[in-house]
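queue> holo job accepted (flavin mononucleotide)
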Amino acid sequence: MDAHDRLVQDGRCPPDPFALLRLWAPADDDPERPLATLATVDADGLPDARTVVLTSVGDDAVTFHTDARSRKADQLRAHPRAALVVRWAERERQVVLRGAAAEVSTEACRAVFARQSRYLQLLAWLNTPELAALPRAERERRWAAFDASHPVLEPPPTWAGFAVRPVDVLFWEGTGDGPSRRVRYRRSARGWTQEALPG
Ligand SMILES: Cc1cc2nc3c(=O)[nH]c(=O)nc-3n(C[C@H](O)[C@H](O)[C@H](O)COP(=O)(O)O)c2cc1C
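queue> job finished
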């Protein structure tokens, strides 16, 4: 058990869930990014979900990036509420965050784009319905041609970031073959409250 485990297991959780989340998540400039399941609702109230990369963990919100023309972006503009489930299977950890989602500034998007891998930068430009409709060999040919002719890439105008500012953050931690445990943080007018829950 390391120091981070004890924070949860011994009930000595920091008063702010983001202090704990930053202990669990890698630093924003770490290329090993956590994956999250992002849940939204569509126009009929039907839940939708998909995997995204968690691009940053701030003081009060977590951020992911996507194509501004995507279904999730449309859904969030119509119903700016989201849930994110982040799981670290090898460490027996999960965090669920629920709250309001808002688009982040173009400047903040540029800074994140600059630290994306070359592959993800290319994908941000080339993830189009037109390319997706082509046979694989042609898609690869166009990808390679675009790559060769664009040694330095700025973010495409379609690249968007969304920050989810949670009202509720639920940390789950397993203990191998012992009891699992959760710590639930809720945002109130006076700050964060926390309670221990069974796993
Ligand atoms: C491992 C993995 C990571 C992904 N990361 C992202 C991401 O960071 N942003 C994104 O828009 N889509 C990402 N995707 C693709 C989405 O899961 C999804 O298929 C796509 O964004 C379209 O979703 P939508 O139609 O619900 O908007 C990822 C998929 C996988 C499997």
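queue> The longest strand covers residues 159-175.
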